[in-house]
Specification:
Blueprint lengths: L5 H16 L15 E17 L5 E13 L5 E6 L3 E4 L4 E10 L9 E8 L11 E9 L13 E13 L1
Antiparallel strand pairs: 1-2, 1-8, 2-3, 3-4, 4-5, 5-6, 6-7, 7-8
Keywords: Signal
Organism: Paraburkholderia aspalathi
Protein name: DUF3455 domain-containing protein
């Protein structure tokens, strides 16, 4: 069993507590249509950005990809999340998603909450029947606060979230 650092365990515990207690009044949940929960996980990782010129030739941070580990309720890593966006379970099953809906984070500097549709791209296993992924309870992950001054430079922002997988 992999033991997480104390700080990470506390962050993940906070995400799970929010998931159990519920969202604040007025929050707009993003629920998939006609689907059953397969698995709910706590994620800890980074959102990766690169410094790029926009149409007005001004440098700014542009989102590139996520990199996170998703943990079950016992704190055991079960899924890796990366570019695509994609999720790969320890058994080799893998899904790729596309955004269907989003709503702002309930925390300052949090990445948006998302509903993604998915398709399987790996072997049969834990994720092969997943049709939707929901990202909620996001904290952190917004573009870096450091100035973007060198084209193609990269930066990252730590984030935590709850990822729920539906079939």
């Amino acid at each position: 069993m992999i033991r997480l650092p104390r700080k990470m365990r506390h962050s993940i515990s906070a995400v799970w507590l929010l998931a159990v207690v519920g969202t604040p009044a007025g929050a707009a949940p993003i629920d998939p249509p006609d689907a059953r929960v397969l698995l709910s996980t706590a994620a800890s990782g980074v959102q990766i950005y690169s410094c790029e010129y926009d149409a007005t030739h001004t440098l700014g941070w542009v989102f590139r990809s996520p990199r996170a580990t998703l943990f079950d309720t016992a704190g055991i890593p079960v899924i890796e999340h990366s570019a695509g966006p994609s999720w790969e379970a320890r058994d080799g099953s893998r899904i790729v998603g596309h955004v269907l809906a989003q709503t702002p984070s309930e925390t300052p500097n949090g990445v948006p909450q998302l509903l993604l549709g998915t398709r399987s791209t790996g072997v049969k296993g834990l994720l092969s029947e997943v049709r939707y992924v929901q990202r909620t309870m996001t904290a952190g992950g917004a573009a870096p606060t450091a100035p973007c001054t060198v084209e193609h430079a990269t930066g990252s922002s730590p984030y935590i979230a709850t990822y729920t997988f539906f079939k």
